[in-house]
């Protein structure tokens, strides 16, 4: 296990978004021993975020990246946390995450999820993306799963969209965030290979 | 033609379908979908231009908002 811990310590993981998925996933990766976390978000902590995001009442009004860095450092001050207070577009993703082994997609909007998956697929074909789709509501534990499409992993039930009637709630959001973190550990510790099937297809 | 769609073998009329026709036919109706054909990510703007044929492995996943 010692060599595994050393491997995690030498790993850099990017987290795009510090909301329900990103904040919970970052804490799980920090506790597991990942050495470097690159976190990005433009938002500030609001009271209504506390229903599912890993922040505290006294952090309301703070930038999410700074509040999350503080929370990570409270668990382990040795983790290198690189913060980017920025609204992520394709250019920022390429600039900020270029040194990361893999990238956690932790946006709330589906169009942003598509954007980062397309950007990484195009600009970083050698990097894994672990995305989330379908985590609203409560219950139905067994619908949550992980599907692999080459260098892309998607965690969630793939059907539960957040709506006013079906809000994101702490248990299911945190469960999917933990699935993303767990998948990241598997990629790193088991040296998962990017499957080369992309070459088999020609226009 | 027969394709593998999300790990299931599916028989379809004709020799090829555009990605758009396939998605419509299979009732993938949400606006945001990840589509991979034989492991390659297909961009939305190419859905009319790229065709699926016999033996292709197609994966389609709805992207749901929430995070």
How is this structure best described in words?
The complex is a heterodimer of chains A (203) and B (67). Chain A is 36% helix and 18% strand. Chain A is α/β, with parallel strands linked by helices and 203 residues long. A seven-stranded mixed β-sheet of chain A has the order 3-2-1-4-5-7-6, with helices on both faces. In chain A, helix 2 (20-32) packs parallel to helix 3 (64-75). Chain A is globular, with a radius of gyration of 16 Å. Chain B is mainly beta and 67 residues long. Helices cover 10% and strands 42% of the residues of chain B. Chain B has one helix at residues 19-25, and strands at 2-5, 8-11, 16-18, 33-37, 40-42, 51-53, 57-62. In chain B, a hairpin with a 2-residue loop joins strand 4 (33-37) and strand 5 (40-42). The longest helix of chain B has 7 residues, at 19-25. Chain B is globular, with a radius of gyration of 11 Å. The termini of chain B are far apart. Chain A binds chain B through residues 17, 19-22, 106-111, 113-114, 117-118, 121, 131-136, 147, 149-150, 152, 154, 156, 158-162, 168, 173, 195, 197-198, 200-201, 203, and chain B through 31-32, 34, 36-41, 43-44, 50, 59, 61-67.
């Amino acid at each position: 296990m010692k060599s595994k811990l050393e491997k995690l310590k030498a790993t850099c993981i990017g987290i795009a978004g510090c909301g329900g998925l990103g904040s919970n996933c970052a804490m799980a990766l920090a506790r597991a021993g990942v050495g470097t976390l690159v976190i990005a978000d433009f938002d500030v902590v609001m009271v209504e975020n506390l229903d599912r995001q890993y922040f505290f009442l006294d952090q309301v009004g703070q930038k999410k990246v700074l509040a999350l860095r503080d929370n990570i450092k409270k668990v382990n001050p040795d983790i290198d946390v690189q913060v980017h207070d920025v609204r992520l577009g394709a250019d920022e993703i390429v600039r900020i995450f270029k040194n990361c082994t893999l990238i956690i997609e932790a946006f709330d909007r589906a169009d942003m999820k598509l954007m980062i998956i397309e950007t990484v697929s195009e600009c970083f074909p050698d990097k894994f993306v672990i995305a989330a789709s379908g985590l609203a509501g409560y219950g139905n534990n067994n619908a949550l799963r992980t599907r692999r499409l080459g260098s892309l992993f998607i965690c969630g039930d793939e059907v539960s969209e957040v709506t006013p009637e079906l809000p994101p709630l702490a248990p299911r959001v945190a469960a999917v965030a933990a699935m993303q973190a767990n998948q990241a550990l598997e990629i790193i510790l088991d040296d998962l290979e990017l499957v080369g099937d992309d070459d088999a297809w020609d226009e | 033609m027969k394709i593998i769609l999300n790990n299931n073998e599916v028989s379809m009329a004709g020799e090829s379908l555009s990605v758009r026709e396939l998605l419509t036919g299979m009732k993938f109706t949400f606006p945001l979908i990840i589509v991979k054909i034989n492991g390659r990510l297909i961009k939305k703007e190419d859905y009319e231009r790229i065709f699926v044929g016999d033996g292709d492995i197609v994966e389609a996943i709805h992207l749901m908002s929430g995070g």
